[in-house]
Amino acid sequence: MASSIRVRATASGDITEVQALIQHPMDTGLVKDSKGEVIPAHYIQKLKFECNGKDVFVANWGTAVSKDPYVKFSFKGAKKGDELKISWTDNKGASDTTTAKIA
């Protein structure tokens, strides 16, 4: 199964810029389907980016994040070729992890 996470990380000097797109429904639990039934809440609770085993970005999310969230940030201390690990867990216990090399 393909990962739900697509990521691109590029280093320029001392700064590494990370862009990630995560496929997830991010249902709030406040919307009804076509039959009038409430769609249960289903959202990412924790998102983490690690570089060389060190956390560089951690987010604790709730229901206020849109479907298929896009994340962009930068950090210092990495270089080209370093490995970036991205993982998330949601409120139903599902999770996904992927890795990417910094270009």
Could you characterize the architecture of this molecule?
The protein is an all-beta fold. The protein has no helices and seven strands. It has strands at 5-12, 15-22, 44-51, 54-60, 70-76, 83-90, 95-101. The strands form two sheets. Strands 4-3-6-7 form a four-stranded antiparallel sheet, with no helix packed on it. Strand 6 and strand 7 form a beta hairpin. The two termini are 25 Å apart. The mean pLDDT is 96.
Low-confidence stretches: none
Helical amount: under 10%
Q: How many beta-strand runs?
A: 7
Name the strands of the widest sheet in spatial order. 4-3-6-7
| Secondary-structure element pattern, one letter each | EEEEEEE
Radius of gyration computed on alpha carbons: 15 Å
Give the count of helical stretches.
Answer: 0
General shape: elongated
User: What's the end-to-end separation, in Å?
Assistant: 25 Å
Mean pLDDT across all amino acids: 96
User: What composes the largest sheet?
Assistant: 4 strands, antiparallel
By secondary-structure content and strand pairing, the structural class works out as mainly beta
Strand content: over 45%
